[in-house]
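Protein modeling request. Please complete all fields; requests missing the sequence field cannot be processed.
Requester role: graduate student
Desired output: 3D structure, token encoding
Chains: 1
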Amino acid sequence: MNAIVVGGGNVGIYITRLLRENGNQVKIIDYNETITKKLEAEFGKENVFLGNGSNPAVLERMGIEKADVLLAVTGADEANLAVGTLAKYEFGVRKVIGKVNNPLNAWLYTKQFGIDMVINQAELISKIAMEQIDFEDMTILLRLSEEKYSIVQFEIKGNSPSVGKCISDLGLPEESLVISISRNKKLQICKGNTILQAGDHLIALVKDSVNEEFKKHFQ
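Delivered output (219 residues):
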């Protein structure tokens, strides 16, 4: 995959590293010469550009016509929106991702403005906090946002109503599935006749709409 990252701050650097580590071709741009010198030392001069990412000529010089994805992650929301709109409507980039710095500007980050996916750090942090509160002792390992499912991990406490019962006898919601159990540091795939014990660590797939019903069987 060919990617262009606009913004050489901490987020831009992290994304560039991650994409490169996974075998992608990445070019990064920043308007600050001091920053680009540091970027060149890490990513190579051929992959770093000095200039304004909202300038069509600069993007053409970066090879935007070959880009599969563009990430606008500068510290200025107006710049990210300008870059995203330009990339989508002027150059037809298939996927455009934009970072929101001020949560009050999040409503502008829509497909109408060329943004396919939003990185809203404030929203992500607040969602994680609320999910952790909602799940109490459960840890969310992965959010499948489009399908509205979560993969969670939790421990069976000694006073849990599930202790001593088979999974098939718990009456769990249809939109949930206990995937595996870690017991005495050994991992095993769950079956309907698996009997739960205090201290078991479970991994489960749960749809958001049945969170409360699912928890009642364990807490």
